[in-house]
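Hi V.,

You were right to ask for the full record rather than a summary. Here it is.
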Amino acid sequence: MQLQNLRIYSHPDFRDYLIIVAGMALYAIGFTVFILPHEIVVGGMAGFSTLVYFATGGLVPVAVTMYVVNIMMLIGWFRLLGRKFVIRTVFGATLLSAIIGAIEGYFTSHAPIVADTTMSVLMGSAICGLGIGLYYAHKGSAGGTDIVAAIFEKKSNISIGRTMMIIDVAIVTCSFFLPFDGDMDARIQARVQTIIYGWASIAIYSFLANYIVNSDKQTIQFLILSPKWHEIADRVAHESGRGVTTFDGHGFWTGESRTMLIVWCRQYDADRIYEIVRRIDEGAYIIQSEARSVYGNGFDPLRMKPRKTIRPKQ
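Predicted structure:
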């Protein structure tokens, strides 16, 4: 029985779900504890739900709007989105709404923990970015703009990232029209400031989330020059599982012919390759650089959408 439980806990899917839960919890804390009490509208479904919350004077909780709208969109676009995406999104949306619903009542009825708005928004955005990065990196989804962006990607050539950014900026901008006690000049002074905070929050958590998601997926290029190149190539190929390409070079100063190795790998393979080279030849020359994109076997698939051509009228 203990062995069976150990296998369950070590299963990749189980670990993914644990990290998704942690990411959702971090996002809920960053948003509800540090951003919402200052009446700042951010992007995504959380931002849209915040608009509804303040537009109704707090009658409709943020968590309720988030959950109801997510479920309605998933039901309406179930066939287009696919079963796996819907199941994953229902799990994420339910979990995130439950966590926010459990804590938003307290933090919206008490003074903010961090009184300074700038510091609170910075802290909340950083925590949100960490949470988003964690659950995105493990194939989690909280719904909201993810759903809309997925629809746009299937129906047009607009990328998911660009769609989400446009929607997020639009949601924050709409906070200008929320109920306000005062004339237009006072509204402009107050709302423009909160809109800038919202845009800054989007930039911060988007940057951190992208960094976390793509950090381990960054492709590294190694150029290795060593007289023991054959042994290094053999070890790299068999111990790291990465391919090695050799090409002949010629030393200008020494006039000697040399064989150089080129290796493409992910960031998480870099330390292993360094260790292989160090064990075989500590005096080897190693050049490491970032490869912006590598497509093919073992890396990213090359996917290109056909461009729409405009046919001339007959």
